[in-house]
Design brief:
Elements lengths: L3 H8 L29 E5 L5 H12 L8 H4 L10 H9 L6 E4 L13 E6 L2 H13 L3 H8 L16 H10 L8 H9 L7 E5 H6 L1 H11 L9 H7 L2 H6 L16 H4 L14 H15 L1 H9 L5
Parallel strand pairs: 1-2, 1-3, 3-4
């Protein structure tokens, strides 16, 4: 006799991969060869939306508040094209702990497993852009060499950013994510499947507002029991101050790709830095574009973390 969960699985219209994405960062074909386990956790974001924070939260839940976890190594960015999939896939397959992996792909470029759990993190695009600009401005020559001078690059290389963050913002908004990738298609692809039983939407602002409550909700979604005797340690190790002080464990290659190292990668963790730089007209242009591209409900969630009933 078919179980309830099997019945849901067989009757649900699951997301289907419909395209590949290649650029200076992406090689989406890695997911075609990835062997899922039933308890895999996939952390998805556009980028600069709280990915590293979510990796830390899940590591703390899985390893019960343990210190010194090499989170960046444990939770690789799968579709980053360096190192190539021939190196990355065997390393991930050899992991014996419950795997929690990172992607920045839109959902239609990702192979979706009904048995894995997916957490998608959103953040106001203006806050994302401010973090992206800092990330790009502080990248060193090793970062450019890894992305532009290695085999497998498809499309143009990524160049140096303009220093003026407002100019950078307008280029990104007007050229649909340039020089990165489209925010709108990324958000739309996940929003469309937000009601899947194995998909959870989390917002950066809600994590800042009520981190403890959000961590408990994440644990419940992932079926991870919380050891209350370790709760204080879990919360402390997920705080911005702790992560900044121990940044080399959370940042890829210990921060070797950024001037100032890992503490540069984990920068401020704040929202609203754009308010003193963007004009009212700039912000209205962004907000109108968000509604046009996402619809009112999704645009509201992306800006505030609130989902209208």
């Amino acid at each position: 006799m078919e179980s309830t969960s099997e019945s849901i699985e067989s009757s649900t219209k699951w997301p289907i991969k419909s395209r590949e994405m290649h650029n200076h960062h992406f090689d989406s074909t890695i997911w075609n060869d990835f062997e899922f386990r039933d308890d895999d956790i996939i952390i998805a974001t556009y980028a600069k939306s709280g990915t590293t924070w979510m990796q830390q939260i899940i590591a703390q839940l899985l390893f019960n508040g343990e210190e010194g976890l090499p989170v960046a190594e444990m939770s690789p960015w799968m579709d980053l094209r360096v190192p190539p999939k021939e190196i990355k896939l065997p390393a991930v397959e050899a992991q014996e702990h419950r795997r929690f992996l990172k992607t920045h792909l839109p959902l239609d470029s990702l192979v979706f497993s009904p048995k894995a759990k997916y957490i998608y993190i959103g953040r106001d695009g203006r806050d994302v852009l401010w973090s992206m600009h800092h990330h790009h401005m502080t990248a060193n020559e090793n970062w450019y060499a890894a992305l532009n001078d290695t085999p497998g690059l498809v499309g143009p290389p990524i160049g140096k950013p303009v220093e003026d963050v407002r100019q950078y913002f307008h280029g990104w908004l007007e050229k649909d994510g340039y020089p990165w990738w489209s925010l709108w298609e990324n958000i739309n692809s996940w929003w469309a499947f937000r009601n899947m039983p194995n998909v959870m939407l989390v917002h950066f602002e809600n994590l800042k507002r009520d981190m403890e409550g959000e961590i408990r909700s994440i644990a419940a979604f992932l079926d991870i029991p919380i050891d209350e005797s370790k709760w204080a340690a879990i919360v402390e190790h997920c705080s911005f101050d702790y992560m900044k002080a121990n940044a080399s464990e959370s940042v890829p290659l210990g921060g070797a790709f950024w001037d100032g190292g890992a503490k540069t990668f984990i920068h401020k963790g704040t929202n609203g830095r754009w308010r003193d730089i963007l004009t009212e007209e700039d912000s209205q242009k962004y907000e109108k574009t968000a509604i046009d591209k996402l619809g009112a409900a999704c645009a509201e969630w992306l800006q505030s973390g609130k989902i209208s009933k």
